[in-house]
Amino acid sequence: MSVVPAITTRISRRFAELKARGEMGIVPYITAGDPSLQATLKFVEALATGGADVIELGVPFSDPLADGPTIQRATERALKARTTLTGVLGLVRELRKSNSPAAEVPIVLFSYYNPILQMGLEKFAEAASDAGTDGVLATDLTPEESVEYRRILHSHNLDTVFLGAPTSTDERLAEIAGVSSGFLYLISRTGVTGAKDSLPDDLPTLLRRARALTQLPIAVGFGISQPGHVSVLGGLADAAVIGSALVSEIESATAKDASDAAINRAALALESRIRSLKHAAQAGLSKREVAS
């Protein structure tokens, strides 16, 4: 399987900066369009202000098989608000014009493959790149089926992020890493997304296995929600992905009341949550030794 060409994006530059500081990255995920795209704009600005290093924007899809109930409900709300892939790309374009840190934060679109395929690979890649997107994770696209997808996205300087799982063999992890750029996304546990109280006991083993197979930065997601989780990952992973816990904050604040006041409350809660996670990434066990 071919190795991806070397491309430079905001994502690779951000991870280089984090490595130089000996710091673990914080990568929040939220569903775009929940409860509206204008609300998502405020949420992304809040996440970036709180210290997010990379932001994943979920593109709502009608059959979200990999998602747990929290993100499934967010997807339903976003679809009810008529959120489309085109609308999400418009949101990214608007963010790049923002006067907040969101204008420069790396953005990854987290999507099922169907919406991308429906738009057309070339049209999607051109639109995503023009809007200011930095990378794409097509959650149900396998490396074997991704040759044309990768060729087209890389030609538009978009990173292609793929998922590795605890059930992946070393050979499979090497294949997944070989077609990934920007970073490798490791799923901490099997099953669907969702916040958990503790991390799996075998996660350090999975991370060591992956580290031996790739020089890409490694981000860990699925089940991460607390500063303590971030601290435990220090020295093992390059970034922690937090999704369901943030989507739940949005749901709690806006599901029954999507007023401007409720959206502002949600934005403040997101900023505070990210700030606490970022603090954990900058201190204690998460602080790495930086080679002099």
Provide the descriptors you would attach to this structure in a database record.
TIM Barrel; 292 residues; 9-stranded parallel sheet; 12 helices; 9 strands; alpha/beta; 47% helix; globular
How would you describe this protein?
The structure is a single chain. It is globular and about 50 Å long. Mean pLDDT is 91; it is low at 191-196. It is of the alpha/beta class. The protein has helices at residues 10-21, 37-50, 69-80, 85-95, 113-119, 121-131, 147-155, 170-179, 203-211, 227-233, 244-254, 260-282; strands spanning 25-31, 55-58, 107-111, 135-138, 159-160, 163-164, 184-187, 218-221, 239-242. The chain has one domain (16-283): TIM Barrel, CATH 3.20.20. The chain has a nine-stranded parallel sheet. The protein is built from twelve helices and nine strands. Helix content is 47%, strand content 12%. β1 (25-31), α2 and β2 form a beta-alpha-beta unit. The longest helix has 23 residues, at 260-282.
